[in-house]
User: What shape does this take?
Amino acid sequence: MAETAADHLATIRDRIAAAEDESGRAKGKVTLIAVSKTFDAPDIQPVIDAGQRIFGENRVQEAQGKWPAMKEAHPDIELHLIGPLQSNKARDAVALFDAIHTIDRDKIARAVKAEMEAQGRDLKLFVQINTGDEPQKAGVSPDEADAFIRRCREEVGLTITGLMCIPPVEETPAPHFALLAKIAERNGLACLSMGMSGDFETAIAHGATHVRVGSAIFGSRSYPA
Assistant: This one.
Protein backbone atom coordinates (compact mmCIF):
# COMPACT_ATOMS: atom_id res chain seq x y z
CA MET A 1 0.00 0.00 0.00
CA ALA A 2 1.35 3.43 -0.95
CA GLU A 3 2.26 5.77 1.87
CA THR A 4 -0.15 8.62 2.52
CA ALA A 5 0.51 12.25 3.39
CA ALA A 6 -0.31 11.34 7.01
CA ASP A 7 2.39 8.65 6.88
CA HIS A 8 4.87 11.16 5.49
CA LEU A 9 3.91 13.62 8.24
CA ALA A 10 4.66 11.02 10.91
CA THR A 11 8.05 10.33 9.32
CA ILE A 12 8.93 14.04 9.22
CA ARG A 13 7.93 14.44 12.87
CA ASP A 14 10.19 11.52 13.80
CA ARG A 15 13.08 13.01 11.83
CA ILE A 16 12.60 16.39 13.51
CA ALA A 17 12.64 14.74 16.93
CA ALA A 18 15.81 12.82 16.03
CA ALA A 19 17.47 16.01 14.77
CA GLU A 20 16.52 17.83 17.98
CA ASP A 21 18.03 15.02 20.02
CA GLU A 22 21.18 14.86 17.90
CA SER A 23 21.79 18.60 18.24
CA GLY A 24 21.19 18.53 21.99
CA ARG A 25 17.97 20.50 21.85
CA ALA A 26 14.90 19.84 23.93
CA LYS A 27 12.18 17.82 22.25
CA GLY A 28 9.41 19.93 20.77
CA LYS A 29 11.48 23.09 20.34
CA VAL A 30 11.13 22.99 16.55
CA THR A 31 7.82 23.98 14.97
CA LEU A 32 6.85 22.13 11.80
CA ILE A 33 5.16 24.28 9.16
CA ALA A 34 3.49 21.98 6.61
CA VAL A 35 3.76 23.86 3.31
CA SER A 36 0.51 23.27 1.47
CA LYS A 37 1.00 25.62 -1.48
CA THR A 38 -0.46 24.28 -4.77
CA PHE A 39 -2.41 21.59 -2.90
CA ASP A 40 -6.18 21.74 -2.51
CA ALA A 41 -8.35 21.16 0.54
CA PRO A 42 -8.89 17.41 -0.14
CA ASP A 43 -5.10 16.92 -0.13
CA ILE A 44 -4.65 18.97 3.03
CA GLN A 45 -7.52 17.52 5.09
CA PRO A 46 -5.82 14.17 5.85
CA VAL A 47 -2.84 16.05 7.27
CA ILE A 48 -5.17 18.12 9.45
CA ASP A 49 -6.87 14.88 10.52
CA ALA A 50 -3.44 13.52 11.51
CA GLY A 51 -3.06 16.40 13.96
CA GLN A 52 -1.05 19.00 12.03
CA ARG A 53 -2.23 22.51 12.81
CA ILE A 54 0.46 24.82 11.39
CA PHE A 55 0.53 25.35 7.63
CA GLY A 56 2.41 27.56 5.19
CA GLU A 57 1.25 29.16 1.95
CA ASN A 58 3.14 31.23 -0.64
CA ARG A 59 0.36 33.30 -2.17
CA VAL A 60 -2.37 35.29 -0.47
CA GLN A 61 -4.90 34.78 -3.27
CA GLU A 62 -4.41 31.01 -3.40
CA ALA A 63 -4.76 30.76 0.37
CA GLN A 64 -7.97 32.78 0.30
CA GLY A 65 -9.50 30.18 -1.99
CA LYS A 66 -9.07 27.24 0.36
CA TRP A 67 -8.26 28.21 3.95
CA PRO A 68 -11.19 30.24 5.34
CA ALA A 69 -13.48 27.20 5.48
CA MET A 70 -10.78 24.93 6.92
CA LYS A 71 -9.86 27.52 9.54
CA GLU A 72 -13.51 27.89 10.46
CA ALA A 73 -13.78 24.11 10.90
CA HIS A 74 -10.52 23.99 12.87
CA PRO A 75 -10.12 27.26 14.81
CA ASP A 76 -6.76 26.16 16.22
CA ILE A 77 -5.10 26.13 12.79
CA GLU A 78 -2.24 28.62 12.42
CA LEU A 79 -1.54 29.85 8.90
CA HIS A 80 1.86 31.25 7.92
CA LEU A 81 2.60 33.32 4.80
CA ILE A 82 6.03 32.20 3.58
CA GLY A 83 5.98 33.78 0.11
CA PRO A 84 6.62 37.39 -0.92
CA LEU A 85 3.98 39.92 0.10
CA GLN A 86 2.93 42.92 -1.99
CA SER A 87 1.68 45.98 -0.14
CA ASN A 88 -1.67 45.88 -1.95
CA LYS A 89 -2.26 42.44 -0.44
CA ALA A 90 -1.42 43.50 3.13
CA ARG A 91 -5.06 43.84 4.18
CA ASP A 92 -6.00 40.38 2.96
CA ALA A 93 -2.82 38.84 4.39
CA VAL A 94 -3.36 40.29 7.85
CA ALA A 95 -6.98 39.16 7.82
CA LEU A 96 -6.20 35.54 6.92
CA PHE A 97 -2.71 34.71 8.18
CA ASP A 98 -1.40 34.36 11.71
CA ALA A 99 2.26 34.87 10.80
CA ILE A 100 4.19 36.50 7.95
CA HIS A 101 7.74 35.33 7.27
CA THR A 102 8.57 37.77 4.48
CA ILE A 103 8.83 41.29 5.88
CA ASP A 104 11.65 42.72 3.75
CA ARG A 105 10.85 46.33 2.82
CA ASP A 106 9.89 49.47 4.69
CA LYS A 107 6.72 49.78 2.62
CA ILE A 108 5.63 46.25 3.58
CA ALA A 109 6.49 46.81 7.24
CA ARG A 110 4.35 49.96 7.36
CA ALA A 111 1.47 48.39 5.44
CA VAL A 112 1.36 45.37 7.75
CA LYS A 113 1.56 47.59 10.84
CA ALA A 114 -1.31 49.74 9.60
CA GLU A 115 -3.48 46.72 8.82
CA MET A 116 -2.79 45.01 12.16
CA GLU A 117 -3.89 48.18 13.93
CA ALA A 118 -6.96 48.61 11.70
CA GLN A 119 -8.04 44.99 12.13
CA GLY A 120 -7.02 44.58 15.77
CA ARG A 121 -4.80 41.63 14.91
CA ASP A 122 -1.33 40.80 16.23
CA LEU A 123 0.64 38.57 13.84
CA LYS A 124 3.99 36.90 14.33
CA LEU A 125 6.38 38.69 11.98
CA PHE A 126 9.66 37.44 10.54
CA VAL A 127 12.15 39.49 8.54
CA GLN A 128 13.34 37.66 5.42
CA ILE A 129 17.11 37.84 4.91
CA ASN A 130 18.54 37.20 1.44
CA THR A 131 21.60 35.39 2.80
CA GLY A 132 22.99 34.73 -0.68
CA ASP A 133 22.44 38.31 -1.89
CA GLU A 134 20.67 36.83 -4.92
CA PRO A 135 19.29 39.63 -7.13
CA GLN A 136 16.25 37.60 -8.19
CA LYS A 137 15.23 36.70 -4.65
CA ALA A 138 13.28 38.68 -2.07
CA GLY A 139 14.78 39.55 1.28
CA VAL A 140 17.01 42.08 3.00
CA SER A 141 20.74 41.96 2.29
CA PRO A 142 22.71 40.68 5.32
CA ASP A 143 24.60 43.98 5.33
CA GLU A 144 21.33 45.89 5.69
CA ALA A 145 19.66 43.50 8.15
CA ASP A 146 20.52 45.24 11.42
CA ALA A 147 19.42 48.65 10.17
CA PHE A 148 16.18 47.27 8.72
CA ILE A 149 15.28 45.39 11.91
CA ARG A 150 15.98 48.55 13.91
CA ARG A 151 13.70 50.62 11.63
CA CYS A 152 10.92 48.03 11.92
CA ARG A 153 11.13 48.24 15.69
CA GLU A 154 11.84 51.89 16.34
CA GLU A 155 10.25 53.73 13.42
CA VAL A 156 7.37 51.45 12.41
CA GLY A 157 6.66 49.99 15.86
CA LEU A 158 6.62 46.34 14.83
CA THR A 159 7.43 43.49 17.16
CA ILE A 160 9.73 41.21 15.16
CA THR A 161 9.43 37.52 16.05
CA GLY A 162 12.46 36.24 14.16
CA LEU A 163 14.25 35.86 10.84
CA MET A 164 13.69 33.72 7.74
CA CYS A 165 15.94 32.68 4.86
CA ILE A 166 15.96 30.52 1.73
CA PRO A 167 19.56 29.56 0.85
CA PRO A 168 20.65 29.53 -2.81
CA VAL A 169 19.70 26.17 -4.32
CA GLU A 170 23.18 25.51 -5.70
CA GLU A 171 25.01 26.22 -2.44
CA THR A 172 25.53 24.26 0.77
CA PRO A 173 22.84 25.55 3.14
CA ALA A 174 24.77 25.30 6.43
CA PRO A 175 26.74 28.58 6.07
CA HIS A 176 23.50 30.42 5.26
CA PHE A 177 21.77 28.98 8.32
CA ALA A 178 24.78 29.94 10.45
CA LEU A 179 24.68 33.48 9.07
CA LEU A 180 20.97 33.84 9.82
CA ALA A 181 21.53 32.60 13.37
CA LYS A 182 24.34 35.12 13.86
CA ILE A 183 22.18 38.03 12.65
CA ALA A 184 19.33 36.88 14.92
CA GLU A 185 21.58 36.58 17.95
CA ARG A 186 23.01 40.07 17.70
CA ASN A 187 19.50 41.49 17.27
CA GLY A 188 18.06 39.57 20.22
CA LEU A 189 15.74 37.42 18.11
CA ALA A 190 14.95 33.90 19.28
CA CYS A 191 13.10 32.50 16.26
CA LEU A 192 14.67 31.20 13.05
CA SER A 193 12.50 30.09 10.13
CA MET A 194 14.89 28.05 8.00
CA GLY A 195 15.12 24.61 6.48
CA MET A 196 12.89 22.88 3.95
CA SER A 197 12.27 19.31 2.81
CA GLY A 198 15.85 18.70 1.70
CA ASP A 199 17.77 20.40 4.47
CA PHE A 200 15.64 20.83 7.59
CA GLU A 201 17.85 18.57 9.71
CA THR A 202 20.85 20.76 8.92
CA ALA A 203 18.76 23.80 9.80
CA ILE A 204 17.79 22.27 13.15
CA ALA A 205 21.47 21.67 13.91
CA HIS A 206 22.02 25.40 13.35
CA GLY A 207 19.18 26.50 15.61
CA ALA A 208 16.04 26.53 13.46
CA THR A 209 12.88 27.02 15.49
CA HIS A 210 10.54 26.74 12.47
CA VAL A 211 11.08 24.40 9.50
CA ARG A 212 9.01 24.65 6.33
CA VAL A 213 8.36 21.20 4.88
CA GLY A 214 6.08 20.68 1.90
CA SER A 215 6.97 18.10 -0.75
CA ALA A 216 8.27 15.60 1.83
CA ILE A 217 4.75 15.56 3.29
CA PHE A 218 2.39 16.23 0.38
CA GLY A 219 4.48 14.85 -2.48
CA SER A 220 5.81 16.53 -5.61
CA ARG A 221 3.96 19.57 -6.88
CA SER A 222 2.52 20.14 -10.32
CA TYR A 223 2.65 23.81 -11.27
CA PRO A 224 0.40 25.42 -13.89
CA ALA A 225 2.07 25.73 -17.29
In short: The two ends are 31 Å apart (CA to CA). The chain has a mean pLDDT of 96.
